[in-house]
# Entry
Amino acid sequence: MIGTPRPRTDVRLRQSRVHSPGELWAAYILLGIFCLITLFPLFVMVSVSLIPSQTLAPSLYHLWPAHPRLANYITMWHDLPIAHFLMNSLIIALGSTVVALAVGIPAGFALSRTKVFGRRIWLFLFLATQMFSPSMIIVSAYHVMSVLHLTDSYFGLIFLDSGFYCLPFVVWIIAGFMRQIPQELEEAVDIDGASSWQKLWRIFTPIAAPVIAVAGVYAFIASWNDFAFALTLATSQSLMPLPIGVYSFIGAYSIQWNYLMGASLVATIPILVLFLVLQRRLTSGIMAGTIR
Amino acid sequence: MYLLPAIALIGLAVGYPIVHIVEMAFGNVNTFGTIMGPNGFQNFIGLWQSGFPIVIRNTAVWTLGILIPTVVLSMALAYSLSLPIRLQPLFRTLSIVPWAIPLTIVAIWGSMAFNALYGQVNTVLLDLHLISHRVGWLATGKTSLPVMILIGIWVSVPFTTLTLLGGIQAIPRDILEASSIDGARGFERFARIVVPLIRNSLQLVVLINLAYIFNSFPIIWVMTQGGPAYSSATVTTFVYQLAFTDGQFGFAGAAALLAFLVLIGVALGYVALYRKSEGSLL
# Structure
Protein backbone atom coordinates (compact mmCIF):
# COMPACT_ATOMS: atom_id res chain seq x y z
CA MET A 1 0.00 0.00 0.00
CA ILE A 2 2.64 2.44 -0.99
CA GLY A 3 1.35 5.85 -2.02
CA THR A 4 -1.83 5.96 0.05
CA PRO A 5 -2.74 9.63 0.37
CA ARG A 6 -2.43 11.00 3.85
CA PRO A 7 -5.77 11.66 5.50
CA ARG A 8 -6.75 15.35 5.68
CA THR A 9 -7.05 15.33 9.43
CA ASP A 10 -3.35 14.79 9.65
CA VAL A 11 -2.71 18.14 8.00
CA ARG A 12 -5.22 19.82 10.31
CA LEU A 13 -3.52 18.22 13.29
CA ARG A 14 -0.15 19.44 12.16
CA GLN A 15 -1.47 22.95 11.65
CA SER A 16 -3.23 23.04 14.99
CA ARG A 17 0.02 22.08 16.62
CA VAL A 18 1.72 24.98 14.85
CA HIS A 19 -0.98 27.58 15.59
CA SER A 20 -2.55 27.96 19.02
CA PRO A 21 -6.30 28.64 19.28
CA GLY A 22 -5.60 32.01 20.91
CA GLU A 23 -3.64 33.07 17.86
CA LEU A 24 -6.51 32.11 15.57
CA TRP A 25 -9.09 33.96 17.69
CA ALA A 26 -6.98 37.08 17.68
CA ALA A 27 -6.79 36.83 13.89
CA TYR A 28 -10.58 36.49 13.55
CA ILE A 29 -11.23 39.48 15.80
CA LEU A 30 -8.69 41.69 14.03
CA LEU A 31 -9.88 40.77 10.54
CA GLY A 32 -13.52 41.12 11.57
CA ILE A 33 -13.01 44.62 12.94
CA PHE A 34 -11.02 45.74 9.92
CA CYS A 35 -13.64 44.41 7.51
CA LEU A 36 -16.41 46.19 9.45
CA ILE A 37 -14.48 49.46 9.24
CA THR A 38 -13.91 48.78 5.56
CA LEU A 39 -17.56 48.23 4.79
CA PHE A 40 -18.79 51.25 6.78
CA PRO A 41 -18.00 53.90 4.13
CA LEU A 42 -19.55 51.82 1.37
CA PHE A 43 -22.62 51.26 3.53
CA VAL A 44 -22.97 54.99 4.24
CA MET A 45 -22.52 55.78 0.55
CA VAL A 46 -25.32 53.40 -0.37
CA SER A 47 -27.65 54.58 2.39
CA VAL A 48 -27.14 58.30 1.66
CA SER A 49 -27.63 57.71 -2.07
CA LEU A 50 -31.12 56.37 -1.29
CA ILE A 51 -32.40 59.37 0.72
CA PRO A 52 -35.24 61.18 -1.09
CA SER A 53 -34.32 64.80 -1.84
CA GLN A 54 -37.32 66.22 0.08
CA THR A 55 -36.08 64.74 3.36
CA LEU A 56 -32.35 65.05 2.69
CA ALA A 57 -31.50 67.58 5.40
CA PRO A 58 -33.34 65.92 8.32
CA SER A 59 -32.30 62.35 7.48
CA LEU A 60 -28.73 62.79 6.31
CA TYR A 61 -27.22 61.90 9.66
CA HIS A 62 -29.31 58.76 10.11
CA LEU A 63 -27.51 55.59 9.19
CA TRP A 64 -30.38 54.29 7.05
CA PRO A 65 -33.14 56.40 5.44
CA ALA A 66 -36.73 55.88 6.63
CA HIS A 67 -37.98 55.72 3.02
CA PRO A 68 -35.16 54.57 0.74
CA ARG A 69 -35.76 55.65 -2.85
CA LEU A 70 -34.00 53.63 -5.53
CA ALA A 71 -35.33 55.96 -8.23
CA ASN A 72 -32.78 58.51 -6.95
CA TYR A 73 -30.34 56.99 -9.39
CA ILE A 74 -32.60 57.77 -12.34
CA THR A 75 -33.19 61.35 -11.13
CA MET A 76 -29.46 61.80 -10.60
CA TRP A 77 -28.72 60.48 -14.08
CA HIS A 78 -31.14 63.05 -15.56
CA ASP A 79 -30.42 66.06 -13.35
CA LEU A 80 -26.62 65.93 -13.17
CA PRO A 81 -24.27 65.40 -16.12
CA ILE A 82 -23.16 62.05 -14.71
CA ALA A 83 -23.29 60.26 -18.06
CA HIS A 84 -21.15 62.99 -19.55
CA PHE A 85 -18.58 62.82 -16.72
CA LEU A 86 -18.51 59.03 -17.04
CA MET A 87 -17.85 59.35 -20.76
CA ASN A 88 -15.00 61.79 -20.06
CA SER A 89 -13.49 59.36 -17.56
CA LEU A 90 -13.67 56.54 -20.09
CA ILE A 91 -12.17 58.61 -22.92
CA ILE A 92 -9.29 59.88 -20.79
CA ALA A 93 -8.52 56.56 -19.08
CA LEU A 94 -8.78 54.48 -22.27
CA GLY A 95 -6.82 57.08 -24.24
CA SER A 96 -4.04 57.12 -21.63
CA THR A 97 -3.94 53.32 -21.56
CA VAL A 98 -3.67 53.06 -25.34
CA VAL A 99 -0.95 55.73 -25.56
CA ALA A 100 1.02 54.22 -22.67
CA LEU A 101 0.87 50.72 -24.20
CA ALA A 102 1.69 51.89 -27.72
CA VAL A 103 4.75 53.75 -26.45
CA GLY A 104 5.56 51.44 -23.55
CA ILE A 105 5.65 48.04 -25.31
CA PRO A 106 8.51 49.02 -27.68
CA ALA A 107 10.30 50.79 -24.81
CA GLY A 108 9.96 47.75 -22.54
CA PHE A 109 11.26 45.58 -25.37
CA ALA A 110 14.22 47.87 -26.01
CA LEU A 111 15.13 47.98 -22.32
CA SER A 112 15.05 44.22 -21.86
CA ARG A 113 16.08 42.57 -25.17
CA THR A 114 18.41 45.02 -26.89
CA LYS A 115 21.71 46.63 -25.95
CA VAL A 116 20.35 50.15 -25.83
CA PHE A 117 22.66 52.92 -24.62
CA GLY A 118 22.17 53.83 -20.95
CA ARG A 119 19.68 51.02 -20.25
CA ARG A 120 20.00 51.18 -16.47
CA ILE A 121 19.85 54.96 -16.41
CA TRP A 122 16.63 55.02 -18.42
CA LEU A 123 15.07 52.38 -16.19
CA PHE A 124 16.06 54.37 -13.12
CA LEU A 125 14.69 57.60 -14.55
CA PHE A 126 11.36 55.95 -15.37
CA LEU A 127 11.19 54.62 -11.86
CA ALA A 128 12.19 57.94 -10.32
CA THR A 129 9.29 59.76 -11.99
CA GLN A 130 6.95 57.52 -9.98
CA MET A 131 8.32 59.01 -6.79
CA PHE A 132 7.10 62.54 -7.54
CA SER A 133 3.78 63.99 -6.64
CA PRO A 134 1.38 64.83 -9.48
CA SER A 135 0.21 67.91 -7.60
CA MET A 136 3.74 69.31 -7.66
CA ILE A 137 4.47 68.28 -11.25
CA ILE A 138 1.30 70.01 -12.42
CA VAL A 139 2.54 73.39 -11.15
CA SER A 140 5.00 73.51 -14.03
CA ALA A 141 3.34 70.95 -16.32
CA TYR A 142 0.50 73.48 -16.47
CA HIS A 143 2.98 75.90 -18.00
CA VAL A 144 3.97 73.28 -20.63
CA MET A 145 0.32 72.57 -21.41
CA SER A 146 -0.57 76.25 -21.84
CA VAL A 147 2.37 76.76 -24.20
CA LEU A 148 1.11 73.79 -26.24
CA HIS A 149 -2.50 75.07 -25.98
CA LEU A 150 -3.60 71.81 -24.36
CA THR A 151 -4.97 73.17 -21.07
CA ASP A 152 -8.63 72.47 -21.74
CA SER A 153 -8.57 69.42 -23.98
CA TYR A 154 -8.69 65.65 -23.75
CA PHE A 155 -5.26 65.49 -25.39
CA GLY A 156 -3.60 67.43 -22.60
CA LEU A 157 -5.02 65.13 -19.93
CA ILE A 158 -4.31 61.95 -21.90
CA PHE A 159 -0.79 63.20 -22.53
CA LEU A 160 -0.05 63.90 -18.85
CA ASP A 161 -1.89 60.86 -17.48
CA SER A 162 -0.17 58.46 -19.84
CA GLY A 163 3.26 60.06 -19.40
CA PHE A 164 3.16 60.40 -15.64
CA TYR A 165 0.83 57.75 -14.21
CA CYS A 166 0.85 54.95 -16.78
CA LEU A 167 4.02 54.78 -18.85
CA PRO A 168 6.68 54.25 -16.16
CA PHE A 169 5.21 51.10 -14.67
CA VAL A 170 3.95 49.81 -18.02
CA VAL A 171 7.59 49.93 -19.18
CA TRP A 172 8.80 48.29 -15.98
CA ILE A 173 6.25 45.49 -15.97
CA ILE A 174 6.79 44.68 -19.64
CA ALA A 175 10.59 44.94 -19.48
CA GLY A 176 10.61 42.74 -16.39
CA PHE A 177 8.56 40.07 -18.13
CA MET A 178 10.26 40.15 -21.52
CA ARG A 179 13.63 39.72 -19.86
CA GLN A 180 12.55 36.29 -18.64
CA ILE A 181 11.64 35.00 -22.11
CA PRO A 182 14.29 32.38 -22.97
CA GLN A 183 17.09 33.35 -25.34
CA GLU A 184 16.62 30.13 -27.39
CA LEU A 185 13.29 31.40 -28.62
CA GLU A 186 14.85 34.54 -29.99
CA GLU A 187 17.70 32.61 -31.59
CA ALA A 188 15.27 30.31 -33.35
CA VAL A 189 13.69 33.34 -35.00
CA ASP A 190 17.10 34.80 -35.81
CA ILE A 191 17.72 31.85 -38.12
CA ASP A 192 14.62 32.83 -40.05
CA GLY A 193 16.14 36.27 -40.45
CA ALA A 194 13.42 38.27 -38.72
CA SER A 195 14.08 41.95 -38.07
CA SER A 196 13.83 43.17 -34.49
CA TRP A 197 10.61 45.01 -35.36
CA GLN A 198 9.06 41.73 -36.53
CA LYS A 199 10.42 39.94 -33.47
CA LEU A 200 8.78 42.50 -31.21
CA TRP A 201 5.30 42.24 -32.71
CA ARG A 202 5.26 38.61 -33.88
CA ILE A 203 7.05 36.92 -30.99
CA PHE A 204 7.43 39.00 -27.87
CA THR A 205 4.14 40.87 -27.81
CA PRO A 206 1.97 37.73 -28.18
CA ILE A 207 3.96 35.91 -25.49
CA ALA A 208 3.70 38.89 -23.16
CA ALA A 209 0.00 39.44 -23.91
CA PRO A 210 -1.29 38.45 -20.44
CA VAL A 211 1.25 40.72 -18.73
CA ILE A 212 0.47 43.52 -21.16
CA ALA A 213 -3.20 43.12 -20.28
CA VAL A 214 -2.43 43.44 -16.58
CA ALA A 215 -0.27 46.50 -17.25
CA GLY A 216 -3.13 47.95 -19.27
CA VAL A 217 -5.61 47.45 -16.44
CA TYR A 218 -3.18 49.14 -14.04
CA ALA A 219 -2.80 52.04 -16.46
CA PHE A 220 -6.57 52.39 -16.75
CA ILE A 221 -7.02 52.43 -12.97
CA ALA A 222 -4.19 54.93 -12.47
CA SER A 223 -5.62 57.33 -15.00
CA TRP A 224 -9.19 56.93 -13.72
CA ASN A 225 -8.00 57.80 -10.20
CA ASP A 226 -6.21 60.99 -11.26
CA PHE A 227 -7.15 64.04 -9.24
CA ALA A 228 -4.46 66.72 -9.50
CA PHE A 229 -4.16 66.90 -13.30
CA ALA A 230 -7.87 66.97 -14.06
CA LEU A 231 -8.51 69.40 -11.19
CA THR A 232 -6.08 71.84 -12.77
CA LEU A 233 -6.50 71.26 -16.50
CA ALA A 234 -10.22 70.44 -16.86
CA THR A 235 -11.54 73.87 -16.03
CA SER A 236 -14.77 73.48 -17.98
CA GLN A 237 -17.43 71.00 -16.95
CA SER A 238 -17.56 69.48 -20.42
CA LEU A 239 -14.10 67.95 -19.84
CA MET A 240 -14.30 66.78 -16.22
CA PRO A 241 -13.83 63.09 -15.45
CA LEU A 242 -16.34 61.64 -12.99
CA PRO A 243 -14.43 62.01 -9.67
CA ILE A 244 -13.59 65.65 -10.45
CA GLY A 245 -17.14 66.24 -11.62
CA VAL A 246 -18.49 64.98 -8.30
CA TYR A 247 -15.95 67.12 -6.45
CA SER A 248 -16.96 70.22 -8.41
CA PHE A 249 -20.48 69.99 -6.92
CA ILE A 250 -19.20 70.19 -3.35
CA GLY A 251 -18.64 73.93 -3.56
CA ALA A 252 -22.36 74.45 -4.24
CA TYR A 253 -24.48 76.28 -1.66
CA SER A 254 -26.63 73.29 -0.73
CA ILE A 255 -24.91 70.04 -1.48
CA GLN A 256 -27.13 67.24 -2.79
CA TRP A 257 -25.27 64.50 -0.98
CA ASN A 258 -27.73 61.81 -2.04
CA TYR A 259 -26.93 62.34 -5.72
CA LEU A 260 -23.24 62.90 -5.06
CA MET A 261 -22.98 59.58 -3.21
CA GLY A 262 -24.84 57.85 -6.01
CA ALA A 263 -22.40 59.34 -8.51
CA SER A 264 -19.50 58.37 -6.24
CA LEU A 265 -20.65 54.77 -6.32
CA VAL A 266 -20.86 54.95 -10.11
CA ALA A 267 -17.25 56.20 -10.14
CA THR A 268 -16.17 53.44 -7.75
CA ILE A 269 -17.81 50.35 -9.19
CA PRO A 270 -15.71 49.97 -12.38
CA ILE A 271 -12.49 50.24 -10.37
CA LEU A 272 -13.78 47.90 -7.65
CA VAL A 273 -14.64 45.31 -10.30
CA LEU A 274 -11.20 45.63 -11.93
CA PHE A 275 -9.52 45.17 -8.56
CA LEU A 276 -11.52 42.04 -7.84
CA VAL A 277 -10.66 40.69 -11.31
CA LEU A 278 -6.98 41.45 -10.73
CA GLN A 279 -7.04 40.22 -7.15
CA ARG A 280 -4.52 37.41 -7.49
CA ARG A 281 -2.17 39.51 -9.60
CA LEU A 282 -2.30 42.73 -7.61
CA THR A 283 1.10 42.27 -6.04
CA SER A 284 2.83 41.38 -9.31
CA GLY A 285 3.16 44.97 -10.42
CA ILE A 286 4.08 46.38 -7.05
CA MET A 287 7.83 46.11 -7.49
CA ALA A 288 7.49 47.99 -10.75
CA GLY A 289 5.86 50.98 -9.15
CA THR A 290 2.91 52.07 -7.11
CA ILE A 291 -0.69 52.60 -7.99
CA ARG A 292 -1.64 56.07 -7.00
CA MET B 1 14.89 53.89 -31.45
CA TYR B 2 12.08 51.94 -29.82
CA LEU B 3 12.78 53.98 -26.74
CA LEU B 4 12.47 57.44 -28.26
CA PRO B 5 8.68 57.91 -28.10
CA ALA B 6 8.65 56.87 -24.45
CA ILE B 7 11.49 59.22 -23.61
CA ALA B 8 9.82 62.06 -25.51
CA LEU B 9 6.51 61.50 -23.72
CA ILE B 10 8.02 61.26 -20.26
CA GLY B 11 10.43 64.09 -20.97
CA LEU B 12 7.59 66.47 -21.80
CA ALA B 13 5.23 65.23 -19.08
CA VAL B 14 7.75 64.98 -16.22
CA GLY B 15 11.30 65.83 -17.29
CA TYR B 16 10.79 69.37 -18.55
CA PRO B 17 8.38 70.29 -15.72
CA ILE B 18 11.07 69.36 -13.20
CA VAL B 19 13.59 71.57 -14.99
CA HIS B 20 11.02 74.35 -15.02
CA ILE B 21 10.44 73.92 -11.28
CA VAL B 22 14.16 74.46 -10.67
CA GLU B 23 14.04 77.58 -12.86
CA MET B 24 11.06 78.91 -10.91
CA ALA B 25 12.70 78.14 -7.57
CA PHE B 26 15.61 80.45 -8.37
CA GLY B 27 13.66 82.89 -10.53
CA ASN B 28 11.66 86.06 -10.06
CA VAL B 29 8.23 84.74 -11.11
CA ASN B 30 5.13 86.90 -11.55
CA THR B 31 1.64 85.81 -10.55
CA PHE B 32 0.94 84.35 -14.00
CA GLY B 33 3.90 82.01 -13.69
CA THR B 34 6.19 83.89 -16.12
CA ILE B 35 9.84 84.01 -15.09
CA MET B 36 11.08 87.64 -15.15
CA GLY B 37 14.70 87.08 -14.14
CA PRO B 38 16.99 85.43 -11.60
CA ASN B 39 16.22 85.81 -7.93
CA GLY B 40 18.91 83.93 -6.00
CA PHE B 41 17.63 82.35 -2.83
CA GLN B 42 14.93 84.98 -2.23
CA ASN B 43 12.14 82.46 -2.89
CA PHE B 44 13.47 80.13 -0.22
CA ILE B 45 13.61 82.95 2.30
CA GLY B 46 10.09 84.09 1.37
CA LEU B 47 8.86 80.51 1.58
CA TRP B 48 10.29 80.14 5.05
CA GLN B 49 8.50 83.30 6.20
CA SER B 50 5.11 82.27 4.80
CA GLY B 51 4.34 79.35 7.07
CA PHE B 52 6.70 76.72 5.71
CA PRO B 53 7.97 75.55 9.13
CA ILE B 54 4.39 74.61 10.13
CA VAL B 55 3.99 72.82 6.82
CA ILE B 56 7.18 70.81 7.39
CA ARG B 57 5.95 69.82 10.83
CA ASN B 58 2.56 68.79 9.39
CA THR B 59 4.26 66.78 6.65
CA ALA B 60 6.34 64.89 9.19
CA VAL B 61 3.26 64.22 11.36
CA TRP B 62 1.22 63.19 8.30
CA THR B 63 3.89 60.90 6.83
CA LEU B 64 5.00 59.15 10.01
CA GLY B 65 1.49 59.23 11.49
CA ILE B 66 0.26 57.17 8.56
CA LEU B 67 3.37 55.11 7.82
CA ILE B 68 4.01 53.62 11.26
CA PRO B 69 0.44 52.56 12.16
CA THR B 70 -0.08 51.29 8.61
CA VAL B 71 2.94 49.01 8.74
CA VAL B 72 2.14 47.73 12.25
CA LEU B 73 -1.54 47.11 11.47
CA SER B 74 -0.77 45.56 8.07
CA MET B 75 1.78 43.27 9.64
CA ALA B 76 -0.85 41.97 12.06
CA LEU B 77 -3.47 41.66 9.31
CA ALA B 78 -1.07 39.91 6.93
CA TYR B 79 -0.09 37.43 9.60
CA SER B 80 -3.76 36.84 10.42
CA LEU B 81 -4.53 36.19 6.76
CA SER B 82 -1.66 33.70 6.54
CA LEU B 83 -3.11 31.54 9.33
CA PRO B 84 -5.35 28.54 8.47
CA ILE B 85 -8.59 30.42 9.18
CA ARG B 86 -12.07 29.90 7.79
CA LEU B 87 -13.44 32.41 5.24
CA GLN B 88 -9.87 33.40 4.33
CA PRO B 89 -10.80 34.34 0.70
CA LEU B 90 -13.67 36.53 1.94
CA PHE B 91 -11.48 38.38 4.45
CA ARG B 92 -8.78 38.80 1.83
CA THR B 93 -11.19 40.23 -0.72
CA LEU B 94 -12.82 42.61 1.77
CA SER B 95 -9.45 43.87 2.94
CA ILE B 96 -8.66 45.10 -0.61
CA VAL B 97 -11.75 47.36 -0.77
CA PRO B 98 -10.22 50.59 0.63
CA TRP B 99 -7.53 50.41 -2.07
CA ALA B 100 -10.11 49.94 -4.81
CA ILE B 101 -12.14 53.08 -4.09
CA PRO B 102 -10.76 56.10 -5.99
CA LEU B 103 -8.96 58.35 -3.50
CA THR B 104 -10.98 61.38 -4.58
CA ILE B 105 -14.19 59.52 -3.77
CA VAL B 106 -12.83 58.44 -0.37
CA ALA B 107 -12.01 62.08 0.36
CA ILE B 108 -15.44 63.29 -0.79
CA TRP B 109 -17.03 60.66 1.45
CA GLY B 110 -14.81 61.87 4.29
CA SER B 111 -15.86 65.48 3.96
CA MET B 112 -19.48 64.36 4.31
CA ALA B 113 -19.03 61.71 6.99
CA PHE B 114 -16.96 63.93 9.30
CA ASN B 115 -19.17 67.00 8.88
CA ALA B 116 -20.11 68.70 12.15
CA LEU B 117 -23.88 68.94 11.44
CA TYR B 118 -24.79 65.76 9.63
CA GLY B 119 -21.66 63.58 9.65
CA GLN B 120 -22.51 59.91 9.99
CA VAL B 121 -19.32 59.27 11.98
CA ASN B 122 -20.68 61.54 14.72
CA THR B 123 -23.91 59.51 14.68
CA VAL B 124 -22.05 56.26 15.24
CA LEU B 125 -19.81 57.72 17.94
CA LEU B 126 -22.88 59.21 19.71
CA ASP B 127 -24.67 55.86 19.53
CA LEU B 128 -21.63 54.17 21.04
CA HIS B 129 -21.48 56.90 23.75
CA LEU B 130 -17.91 57.73 22.78
CA ILE B 131 -18.70 61.44 22.39
CA SER B 132 -21.36 63.56 24.12
CA HIS B 133 -22.05 66.07 21.33
CA ARG B 134 -21.43 66.43 17.58
CA VAL B 135 -17.83 67.38 16.86
CA GLY B 136 -16.66 69.63 14.00
CA TRP B 137 -13.80 67.33 13.05
CA LEU B 138 -12.65 69.30 10.02
CA ALA B 139 -12.95 72.79 11.54
CA THR B 140 -9.44 73.00 13.04
CA GLY B 141 -6.08 71.49 12.20
CA LYS B 142 -5.97 69.90 15.67
CA THR B 143 -8.74 67.45 14.77
CA SER B 144 -8.73 67.50 10.97
CA LEU B 145 -5.14 66.29 10.60
CA PRO B 146 -5.69 63.22 12.84
CA VAL B 147 -8.98 62.44 11.06
CA MET B 148 -7.31 62.62 7.66
CA ILE B 149 -4.41 60.54 8.97
CA LEU B 150 -6.92 57.83 9.98
CA ILE B 151 -8.33 57.88 6.45
CA GLY B 152 -4.79 57.75 5.08
CA ILE B 153 -4.06 54.66 7.17
CA TRP B 154 -7.28 53.06 5.99
CA VAL B 155 -6.39 53.46 2.32
CA SER B 156 -2.73 52.44 2.77
CA VAL B 157 -3.35 49.22 4.66
CA PRO B 158 -4.58 46.97 1.78
CA PHE B 159 -1.52 47.40 -0.44
CA THR B 160 0.81 47.02 2.52
CA THR B 161 -1.02 43.96 3.84
CA LEU B 162 -0.98 42.18 0.47
CA THR B 163 2.73 42.81 -0.03
CA LEU B 164 3.59 41.57 3.46
CA LEU B 165 1.26 38.59 3.03
CA GLY B 166 3.24 37.68 -0.09
CA GLY B 167 6.39 37.81 2.00
CA ILE B 168 4.94 35.64 4.76
CA GLN B 169 3.61 33.06 2.33
CA ALA B 170 7.09 32.72 0.84
CA ILE B 171 8.44 31.50 4.21
CA PRO B 172 8.93 27.71 4.04
CA ARG B 173 6.40 25.90 6.24
CA ASP B 174 9.12 23.77 7.78
CA ILE B 175 10.61 26.78 9.49
CA LEU B 176 7.33 27.59 11.24
CA GLU B 177 6.86 23.96 12.25
CA ALA B 178 10.41 23.67 13.50
CA SER B 179 9.92 26.82 15.55
CA SER B 180 6.81 25.40 17.21
CA ILE B 181 8.73 22.28 18.20
CA ASP B 182 11.26 24.57 19.79
CA GLY B 183 8.40 26.03 21.78
CA ALA B 184 7.93 29.34 19.98
CA ARG B 185 4.22 30.10 19.75
CA GLY B 186 1.81 32.92 19.06
CA PHE B 187 3.23 36.38 19.41
CA GLU B 188 6.71 35.14 20.24
CA ARG B 189 7.01 33.29 16.95
CA PHE B 190 5.50 36.22 15.08
CA ALA B 191 8.04 38.66 16.48
CA ARG B 192 11.14 36.47 16.52
CA ILE B 193 10.73 34.23 13.48
CA VAL B 194 8.26 35.79 11.02
CA VAL B 195 9.25 39.46 11.20
CA PRO B 196 13.00 38.93 10.61
CA LEU B 197 12.26 36.57 7.70
CA ILE B 198 10.25 39.14 5.76
CA ARG B 199 12.68 42.00 6.20
CA ASN B 200 12.87 42.63 2.45
CA SER B 201 9.11 42.97 2.07
CA LEU B 202 9.05 45.26 5.09
CA GLN B 203 11.71 47.56 3.65
CA LEU B 204 9.86 47.59 0.35
CA VAL B 205 6.51 48.65 1.83
CA VAL B 206 8.16 51.27 4.02
CA LEU B 207 9.85 52.91 1.02
CA ILE B 208 6.86 52.76 -1.33
CA ASN B 209 4.50 54.00 1.36
CA LEU B 210 6.93 56.76 2.26
CA ALA B 211 6.80 58.22 -1.25
CA TYR B 212 3.08 57.54 -1.61
CA ILE B 213 2.03 59.15 1.68
CA PHE B 214 4.42 62.08 1.35
CA ASN B 215 2.94 62.81 -2.08
CA SER B 216 -0.69 62.22 -1.14
CA PHE B 217 -2.82 65.10 -2.31
CA PRO B 218 -6.57 64.38 -2.79
CA ILE B 219 -7.50 63.55 0.82
CA ILE B 220 -6.23 66.83 2.26
CA TRP B 221 -7.15 69.00 -0.71
CA VAL B 222 -10.75 67.78 -0.84
CA MET B 223 -11.38 67.73 2.91
CA THR B 224 -9.69 70.94 4.15
CA GLN B 225 -7.54 72.42 1.33
CA GLY B 226 -4.81 72.44 3.98
CA GLY B 227 -6.68 74.99 6.04
CA PRO B 228 -7.57 76.79 8.09
CA ALA B 229 -4.36 78.82 7.60
CA TYR B 230 -1.94 75.97 6.75
CA SER B 231 -2.90 74.11 9.94
CA SER B 232 -3.49 70.90 7.99
CA ALA B 233 -1.30 71.60 4.94
CA THR B 234 1.50 69.26 3.90
CA VAL B 235 4.23 70.17 1.41
CA THR B 236 2.20 68.67 -1.43
CA THR B 237 -0.96 70.68 -0.82
CA PHE B 238 1.08 73.75 0.12
CA VAL B 239 2.89 73.76 -3.25
CA TYR B 240 -0.43 73.49 -5.06
CA GLN B 241 -1.98 76.24 -2.96
CA LEU B 242 1.02 78.57 -3.41
CA ALA B 243 0.86 78.17 -7.18
CA PHE B 244 -2.82 78.01 -8.04
CA THR B 245 -4.50 79.88 -5.16
CA ASP B 246 -1.90 82.46 -4.11
CA GLY B 247 -0.10 82.90 -7.46
CA GLN B 248 3.28 82.53 -5.68
CA PHE B 249 4.92 80.37 -8.33
CA GLY B 250 8.44 81.18 -7.12
CA PHE B 251 7.67 79.95 -3.60
CA ALA B 252 5.89 76.93 -5.04
CA GLY B 253 8.95 76.07 -7.12
CA ALA B 254 11.23 76.41 -4.11
CA ALA B 255 9.05 74.15 -1.95
CA ALA B 256 8.66 71.59 -4.73
CA LEU B 257 12.42 71.53 -5.28
CA LEU B 258 13.04 70.82 -1.59
CA ALA B 259 10.44 68.03 -1.72
CA PHE B 260 12.08 66.54 -4.82
CA LEU B 261 15.42 66.33 -3.05
CA VAL B 262 13.79 64.26 -0.30
CA LEU B 263 12.04 62.05 -2.87
CA ILE B 264 15.19 61.42 -4.89
CA GLY B 265 16.69 60.06 -1.68
CA VAL B 266 13.70 57.71 -1.36
CA ALA B 267 14.09 56.66 -5.00
CA LEU B 268 17.79 55.85 -4.51
CA GLY B 269 16.98 53.81 -1.41
CA TYR B 270 14.36 51.96 -3.42
CA VAL B 271 16.82 51.15 -6.18
CA ALA B 272 19.38 49.87 -3.66
CA LEU B 273 16.71 47.61 -2.21
CA TYR B 274 15.58 46.45 -5.65
CA ARG B 275 19.11 45.53 -6.67
CA LYS B 276 19.58 43.56 -3.46
CA SER B 277 16.34 41.58 -3.69
CA GLU B 278 15.51 41.14 -7.40
CA GLY B 279 18.25 42.84 -9.34
CA SER B 280 17.42 41.38 -12.73
CA LEU B 281 16.67 44.62 -14.52
CA LEU B 282 18.64 47.45 -12.95
